[in-house]
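Notes continue from the previous slide.

Worked example: a multi-chain complex. Inputs as given:
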Amino acid sequence: MSREEELKEFILHGYIQYIPHVSIDCAIFGYHERQMKVLLIKHKFLNGWCLPGGYIKRTENLVEAANRNVKERTGIDGLFLQQFKTFGDPNRVKLDGFDVEKWFAVTGIRITRDNWLVDQTISVGFYAITDFVSSVPQPDILADDCAWFDIHEIPPLEFDHDEMVKEALHTMRVQLYHYPIGYSLLPEKFTLAEIHSLYETLLGKKLDISNFPKKLIALGLLRKTTEKRSIGAHRSPHLYSFDKPSYENALKEGLVLS
Amino acid sequence: MSREEELKEFILHGYIQYIPHVSIDCAIFGYHERQMKVLLIKHKFLNGWCLPGGYIKRTENLVEAANRNVKERTGIDGLFLQQFKTFGDPNRVKLDGFDVEKWFAVTGIRITRDNWLVDQTISVGFYAITDFVSSVPQPDILADDCAWFDIHEIPPLEFDHDEMVKEALHTMRVQLYHYPIGYSLLPEKFTLAEIHSLYETLLGKKLDISNFPKKLIALGLLRKTTEKRSIGAHRSPHLYSFDKPSYENALKEGLVLS
């Protein structure tokens, strides 16, 4: 099947393979050395940017659908994916920005009111965090562009995606003390300065440099190793690691803080 | 329209008023004096119990749908409702326990494979907490019974509802330190013993009586008032209240603990 035929089949009969009325949207955050970004996509028939997303195959569970989507956009398989909220409001998808002529030019199909893609849709939001340096953004079949945007320079997004980003950030920040979110963003052993930078960047606020590590150690999230790293004359800070058993126990018990 | 006609209309043409493929399920927890319960429903055509739930009207957002459902089952309007997770797995609803003959006896309708109620459904889970003494459980049109079960004596539930209860508890316990969950379960001013009992019961574990209030005060959740309550000779413990501005700020900022 050619790409055009595939697209036509998806638009006209996609409901056979995918569940109608339900989509997923992914807030993929990128971190690298004090910078935080989010991955956005520009569809050919929309004027603005939005979060990447898609439909759920009838053979997939929700995490599998989100993972497939994240893998297609970033090239990375098996990222830590976390549901943050499901969005369902009769007015959540306003089609004001939807350009029917552009859609026709791209797809060659005049979409009708009874098409499965037009009806009301509820969307399950997932967030993920990765090192943005290691990923290569890939637009999907209907998109012109896919790119990282600094978290402080996000343009107004299509649909209810401004709210999605806000809610994803909110949940990630609450969960930062309960889930092993930092694991993949730091080397196995790291300095207090490195984890301090990571937490300040993800939380979007200044954290007291002396209280912050004490709290993480008191909560049982952080473990001091016997090793040091030499970073210059008279400077060799201790190295730390995440307390993996404590995290795993917390995930099982449901609480780090208790 | 009679109740029978209403039911027939819902089964045959409910997709006009409700969004197909998406439901909500509600884990309604009840608290009263060291006891924690969950509200369960027994459908006429299922052998076991399950969480109350239903479909989303096309004019409703998700919280409105959940609130309508909770109000219908408990008689209480405007409970603090929190989404905890959305469940979507091709195998989540096994119809092994679904008794076709009982269904026919109740509804008078032979349901077909292409009926909108039979197709794959994704369910958005909400949890709520209320004082179970103040609510009167009401079965819905297709249920025989609706009742409170002690959290330690829940029977095996239908569908994936065992997992739903587990996930609802997990999320409630994580959020107990971030959201004003306790508000409606204690009087405006309460003793440390009362909030200690509440937190122990909701978390399902023992909490050190001397450290626990210190932590809540340190986190800015609790405020000591100047008042005392006389509860006997030589016993008049200080009264406390929730630190509402701190909670509201935390909800805005996304974090109590930071």
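Summary box: The first strand of chain A starts at residue 18 and ends at 32. Residues 48 and 158 of chain A are 6 Å apart (CA to CA).
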